[in-house]
Design a protein that fits this description.
heterodimer, A: mainly beta, B: about 110 residues, mainly beta, four-stranded antiparallel β-sheet, about 0% helix
Chain lengths: ~130, ~110
């Protein structure tokens, strides 16, 4: 059974970098049948998909337009986890952040939804 | 980016009665493989979202069969055949046909 465990600070100062980690158990970050996603939720933005990393012979990333240029999602194969870094944060980045696994059928690579989510991390941007 | 809308945004329901939520996309979610890339998620109070439906009409593992998804292209529907008290929460659709993935604004379902 795949599980995701999030960690990271709950308070970040404006203009600094928000960093969160999502540790994976029961699967590999290098899996060819998964993608590793970050999503945030705030009252003003609702649920917002931020981006993903995945391995298909090589590593690839996709990012939301709203955070492009400020966001980096990196895999860490040595620790079997992936991370989110969001630079130059402002109070508008205050949100609950989730990591989630996108599942793909191993035989036909068909997408099967984001069936596993982390527990959520509340991050407040404030001085 | 694709724009995703939902209606209604609030849905009071009576246990035992059916319920229906609509999701519309500004672009077709029908991919070249013949599948519609539209997910449905339920976020119960105080919990992380949970997957209900993927590819428009496929129930995720463990999801009760009172939940069903239908639709194609730009118009989709989530139906609950008989609402139970445990179904309260916010329902979101999400397009996954192309990155960036976009969630709908959510439909809050509560008991009348």
């Amino acid at each position: 059974q795949v599980q995701l465990q999030q960690s990271g600070p709950g308070l970040v100062k404006p203009s600094q970098t928000l960093s969160l980690t999502c540790a994976i158990s029961g699967d590999s970050v290098s899996s060819n049948s998964a993608t590793w996603n970050w999503i945030r939720q705030s009252p003003s933005r609702g649920l917002e998909w931020l981006g993903r990393t995945f391995y298909r012979s090589k590593w690839s990333n996709d990012y939301a337009v709203s955070v492009k240029g400020r966001i980096t999602i990196n895999p860490d194969t040595s620790k079997n986890q992936f991370s989110l870094q969001l630079n130059s944060v402002t109070p508008e980045d205050t949100a609950v952040f989730y990591c989630a696994r996108g599942n793909y059928n191993r035989s036909n690579a068909l997408y099967h939804g984001m069936g596993v989510w982390g527990q959520g991390t509340t991050v407040t941007v404030s001085s | 980016d694709i724009v995703v809308t939902q209606s209604p945004l609030s849905l009071p329901v009576t246990p035992g009665e059916p319920a229906s939520i609509s999701c519309r996309s500004s672009q077709s979610l029908l991919y070249s493989n013949g599948y519609n890339y539209l997910d449905w998620y339920l976020q119960k109070p105080g919990q992380s979202p949970q997957l209900l439906i993927y590819l428009g009409s496929n129930r995720a593992s463990g999801v009760p069969d009172r939940f069903s998804g239908s639709g194609s292209g730009t118009d989709f529907t989530l139906k609950i055949s008989r609402v139970e008290a445990e179904d309260v929460g916010v329902y979101y659709c999400m397009q996954t046909v192309q990155a960036p993935f976009i969630f709908g604004p959510g439909t809050k379902v509560d008991i009348k």
